[in-house]
Amino acid sequence: MHDIQLHNLLERETARQINGVELIASENYASKEVIDAMANVLNNKYAEGYPGKRYYGGCEIVDEIENLAIDRLNQLFGTEYANVQPHSGAQANAAIFLATLQAGDTVLGFDLSHGGHLSHGSAVNYSGKIYDAQFYGVEEETGLIDMDKVAKKAEIARPKLIICGASAYSQDWDYKRFREIADSVGALLLADISHPAGLIAKGLLNNPVEHCHIISTTTHKTLRGPRGGVIMMGKNIDNPWGRSTKKGNPIKMSSILNSGVFPGMQGGPLEHIIAAKAVAFNEALTDDFGIYAKQVIANSTAMADAFTAAGYKIVSGGTVNHLMLLDLRHNLTLNGKQADAALGAAHITVNKNMVPYDDKSPFVTSGIRLGTPAITSRGLREDDCIELVSWIDAILKDFENESLIKDIGKKVEAKMSQFPLYPSI
Ligand code: DSN
Known about the structure:
By secondary structure, this protein is α/β, with parallel strands linked by helices. The protein has helices at residues 4-19, 32-38, 60-77, 89-100, 126-129, 147-157, 175-185, 197-201, 253-265, 271-284, 287-309, 336-345, 373-378, 382-397, 402-416; strands at residues 21-22, 49-50, 53-54, 81-83, 106-110, 132-136, 161-164, 188-192, 214-218, 229-233, 323-327, 348-349, 351-353, 367-371. Helix 7 links the parallel strand 7 (161-164) and strand 8 (188-192). The chain binds D-serine. D-serine binds at residues 26, 117, 167.
């Protein structure tokens, strides 16, 4: 690279990723093949529209690439419909909202401050500004969702769309019960599986495909692909509003969702990213990816057990997936911001996170969120996770002790040098 300034920044970021422990639950290390598939001439191509129906010439090859990504994604999740164009999970959700709702319609989602996502109706997001957003959450005592309370909320709010899915919830989802609730109020049901998608794809968690009308996910978390989003449907249903074509045929939901993405929400698709999605979906179809996904959960469980044994409180009492949320108020005096900074100084990257019923602001928080997708890609196993917990525990209990943090930082670097990021680097 001739751009020395950027070259140096890339070198520094590469070193940061190589030397540190990455515990941000929404991050992962995409394979070298995925990375390579993003950096090529596909970046140069405009392809507004969909395969076979583009607004630009010269799309024959990108049509094949996009169809490849669609076919592989459908194979991975056993779905009938997939749109691989959303630039992100938030934009996938925005396109779904645009396609299925009118401004002012009511949506029912998981409260952001209990572990939900911005794009599920948060007041500071388009989804909470344009639509009437109502929320369900977790119980203060258990940290679990009470499905009877969700049903009651739905009965009162009468939402047009119910969303299940979260950014910081370490338990599984009862998609069947959510569907019964959605049906009882005539709502569509959207599962946003951005976090656990890779684990669901390998059959390790409940599968929303049979129960939810629409599924959205990012492609870069447990799915370990490029940054991006997709939309799927198990069955390509007729639209529920009775809209039909000029010839009187019912319009399929696939057409309505496709229009929500383009031209509704986005312009030209990122065909280089779609190519990388195709590579990642192919990787996720392999048995090796199943072994990886199982190890993600084994590592997460080992970590959660070690934290519990050391006296920490995990919101909801443990984990069945790739992440956990520590409520620091239980046994410590430091807040999430202080914990994030102290661990960061030892090259252990986490994110401060609100816990349910938090008394602190989102910039301070009472919790930290940790996840194992990235360290599992590096090759760490249960014993390594237990060692990491001992270092994290030591720092959190003595977070102003600079020499301790420095010492652990050195141990972190030494440990991670045994787990190459990409053997070719
Ligand atoms: N969902 C957020 C996260 O989990 O980090 C990103 O939008």
